[in-house]
Amino acid sequence: MVGSTCVNSQKELPFLRHEFEKRYHDYQAKPLPSYPRSLKGSLEHDNQVQSFSHTPPDPILIGDTKKALAVYAKGTKQLSTLPLSLSQATQQFSQLQIDTNTSEEKS
Fold first, then answer.
1. How many angstroms separate the CA atoms of 18 and 24, rounded?
2. pLDDT level of residue 25 (50, 70, 90 thresholds)
3. pTM (2 decimals)?
4. Which of 88, 90, 89, 75 is nearest to 39 (CA)?
5. Where are the domains of the chain?
6. How far apart are CA 70 and CA 64, in angstroms?
7. Cβ-count burial of 3 within 10 angstroms (0-12 exposed, 13-18 middle, 19+ buried)?
């Protein structure tokens, strides 16, 4: 149901608050999942999906330089152009797992 979260009675709010706090605490306790080192723009994504040949633009640094460079250094490489066959996606995912495990062992 769309908008059902805003249609709660006053009696339900303390329970919803507790549930939110519990989930948020669990989320904070977990280590960060992997994340991409840079974000693609919608045009870059559309061009890849439609197989237009182009050289992806260099990422643009926004905000705090040190933090942005740390995000870029610790981020993962994105999968190549879409659409991928299942075998291609599986192969790329396996390679990412190997790369991640290798970099964790070096740390």
1. 10
2. very high
3. 0.42
4. 75
5. 4-106
6. 10
7. exposed
At 83 the pLDDT is: 61
Q: How many residues does the chain have?
A: 107
Radius of gyration of the CA atoms of the chain, in A: 20
Q: Say which DSSP state 75 is in.
A: S
Please give the structure tokens belonging to residue 81: 């152009």
pLDDT tens digits, 54-65: 777 788 888 999
The SS3 call for residue 76 is strand
**Which residue has tokens 């260099």?**
58
The residue type of 95 is Q
- Indicate the burial class of 29 (C-beta count within 10 angstroms; 0-12, 13-18, 19 or more): exposed
Nearest to 37 by CA among 96, 77, 66: 77
